[in-house]
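Re: beginner question about structure tokens

> Can someone show what the tokenized structure looks like for a real chain? I only ever see the sequence side.

Sure, here's an example I had lying around. Input first:
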Amino acid sequence: AQSGELPVVPDGETPRISQFDTDNIAILGDGRIVFSEVRAAARLRVFDPTAGTIETIAGNGVESEMRDSHDGMPALEVPIGILIDDIAVGPDGSIYVAVDFRIIRIAGGRVFIHAGNRRIAPTVEGPAREVSIDTSVIAVAKDGTVYFEGDRSSEGRTSVWRVRNGRVELVAGGVSETCPPSGALDELRFVSIDGVAVSPDGDLLVADSLGAVVHRVDLADRTYSREAGVGVGGQGCGLSEECPGPLMDLRGPKGVAFDSFGHPVLWDETWGVLRIGADGLVHPVTSYNDGRL
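And the corresponding structure tokens:
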């Protein structure tokens, strides 16, 4: 919920009315919820659902970009940015944030520059802190590799990249309204990426909202397949019938994730939250009476 009329809830207090101006949340391993509070000068805060309290973990309340000189400083003493685009949690509990043309990492109470140079330019391969990064989607694998969507030649959000061993590497991408439903990774193309998730076994799910498909990327075999959606102009099935994922008539998949069983979950602008079960069929999550996955 949002309310710009009330003051920010102080640390340690139990909020009666949520006023968190945020589009981004992530769940820590202990169940606490990390969220960005943009209205409070891009602070990161944690809500403990057991205690019912809120704690600020990063950002000093000053509306300013994080500078190179802030790298490694206590997270509460420096500004972390102005506009936070996404949050993800690493396997060791580190928190990764896409903000102001960078990816930063918060660990041990300190903030570190993970990738990006704050300059607006297409992304290229190279040392992580020397290349340009403009992303609104990040995901972290269990080995700590950070995946993100980006622009490599002023084409828009048409490529998937990763930060690994201190370098930015291209995973897949290029602009095209169509591509084969499966094939070698070099053939994979996107129209506009709006979601990336990493499965427990290391596969990627990539939601192409304008392409109306969700792709699964097998990084080990360097292949891809269509997880859901028939693509733009395709004739697919809906929720009124038993519909396999690749035959689903998606209208704009915006977000992807995996549930606790490793089943793909996606959010579509028309159909809402969907889950692809072990049977390969699409199931509507938001229509369940109990609302659980």
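Each token stands for a local structural state, so reading them left to right follows the chain. The mean pLDDT is 87.
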